[in-house]
Amino acid sequence: MSLFRKKSISALLQESENKGLTLKKDLGAFDLTMLGIGAIIGTGIFVLTGVAASQHAGPALIISFILSGLACVFAALCYAEFASSVPVSGSAYTYSYATFGELIAWILGWDLILEYGVASSAVAAGWSGYFQGLLGGFGIYLPKAITSAYNPSAGTYVDIPAILIVLFIMFLLTQGVKKSARFNTIMVIIKLAVVFLFIGVGAWYVKPANWTPFMPFGFDGVAVGAATVFFAYIGFDAVSTAAEEVKNPKRNMPIGIIASLAVCTILYIVVSAILTGIVPYTELNVKNPVAFALNYIHQDWVAGFISLGAITGITTVLLVMMYGQTRLFYAISRDGLLPKAFSKVNKRTNTPVVNTWVVAIIVAFFAGVIPLGKLAELTNIGTLFAFIVVSLGVLVLRKTQPNLKRAFKVPFVPVIPLLAVLFCGYLTLQLPATTWISFFVWLVIGLFVYMLYGRRNSHLNQTEGKEKQTT
Fold it and tell me: Residue 1 domain-assigned?
């Protein structure tokens, strides 16, 4: 029984056309770009910029964003080649199944379950904080016991707003991908308008003196800053989980992935330059750095809009992360490595409803009850691991299947994929030892699940068994 049995690309494509399990093809290039921007611009720009500037990079936060952005650009090109060649749900998990075999695919799928699940929980908790801040502006305050995760010493027991936003997103996702995409597009437009408002107002208050010293913590600080703000970029890979719901995926997938990443990278660099130009980096260690900067220059009316933009921004991140999680479960279940219930599609909405409910309950539990602390770093290591495997996968597939039809090709192979591996590998080394330990513990649990359930129930294993019986 081979642990490295591979699924042929023709079989993957045939499965995606299976009428009993098909997802509805409703999305175009614009929808995908909006999904990408919806996933990328959120917690990173509205929350992490302050921490990264004050504790790690200083005004050189711009370089941190460029370093993280480069790692993502190289990886995005590799994702775009796979997404145009193998337009099937499951993202890096599916690509690995065709390239490296079942065990590596399962490890990567299990890794992505951690990435999307933890990210969704962290984002829901962040949304709760901003939402309560907005209510506070109107003089409305919730009972302390229901405002944050379980921490009796602080008088908090459950984060009700976080649970409610997760359930709302779950309801939206069960209504069909087109309705979810339409809601996402509206929220993204509001979010982008708020970011441009900050740029338009803040640019007039920049003091170049605030940019010196430019690199107060040295290049090591810039590198740690890059690993920290990497969380700001995760999400573009969620675009590739939409592959089976895209009209003309071979053309539209690369456009959606690359366009969303390009727009967000430019905005991040501009915003971080203005932010550190307005406020001395030593004062940016706050939860709402963008709104804080506007209060700092006495533009309180704009700060109110920023809080609204942060809420819409974080809502779209949660939407796309939970969407990616449900499509990942769908793909793994369809291969038999998880129970069949996860790949059942509702006939009316063409969405995996049971799967979406399960994801929502898990995310709501973690967001509402468990204090997350350093779990954002777990999300980062999971994403970087996926990027490395996908980049290596491009090199392997170019060698093993040179004649495969590729609507989009990574330029300068093997240079670009190897640069993606080097950049992402370097960023993983900047993460603390506790993150690595937690990551390996999660992978060990995943291997037990595979050995006890997935290996026996895998559709490839059952096919192999039937072939042996007939010979």
Answer: no
Rounded CA gap, 275 and 270, in Å? 9
Domain containing residue 101: 27-461
Residue 461 token pair: 């294993």
Is residue 17 in a domain?
Answer: no
Cα torsion 332, 179, 237, 37 to 10°: value is -170
* Contact (CB, 8 A) for 345 and 210: no
Q: Do the Cβ atoms of 129 and 39 come closer than 8 Å?
A: no
What's the 3-state SS for 183-215?
Answer: HHHHHHHHHHHHHHHHHHHHHHHCCHHHHCCCC
How far is it, in rounded angstroms, from Cα 11 to Cα 94? 11
Return the pLDDT at 19: 46
What count of residues does the chain have? Answer: 471
Q: Tell me the pTM.
A: 0.83
Low-confidence ranges of the chain (pLDDT < 50): 19-20
User: Is the four-CA dihedral 399, 401, 403, 408 of positive or negative sign?
Assistant: negative
3-state secondary structure of 458: coil
CA distance 30 to 32: 5
pLDDT in tens, 32-84: 888 888 888 876 777 778 878 888 899 999 999 998 888 888 988 898 888 88
User: Which DSSP category does 341 fall into?
Assistant: G
Is residue 21 domain-resident?
no
Q: 417: which 2 tokens?
A: 């994929």
Buried b (16+ CB within 10 A) or exposed e, 196-207: ebbeebbeebbe
Give a yes or no: residue 19 inside a domain.
Answer: no
Q: What is the pLDDT of residue 377?
A: 63
Q: Name the β-bridge partners of 156.
A: 151
Four-CA torsion 343, 103, 446, 356, nearest 10 degrees: -20
Task: Confirm if 342 and 358 have CB atoms less than 8 A apart.
Answer: yes
What would the pLDDT profile of 257-278 be if each residue is shown by its tens digit?
A: 888 888 888 999 999 999 999 9
Q: Give residue 289's pLDDT.
A: 85
pLDDT digits (tens, 9 = 90+) for 333-345: 988 999 988 988 8
- What is the CATH number for 336? 1.20.1740.10
**Which two tokens mark 58?**
């200083």
Residues 310, 197 contacting (CB under 8 angstroms)? no
Read off the tokens for 458.
């895998």
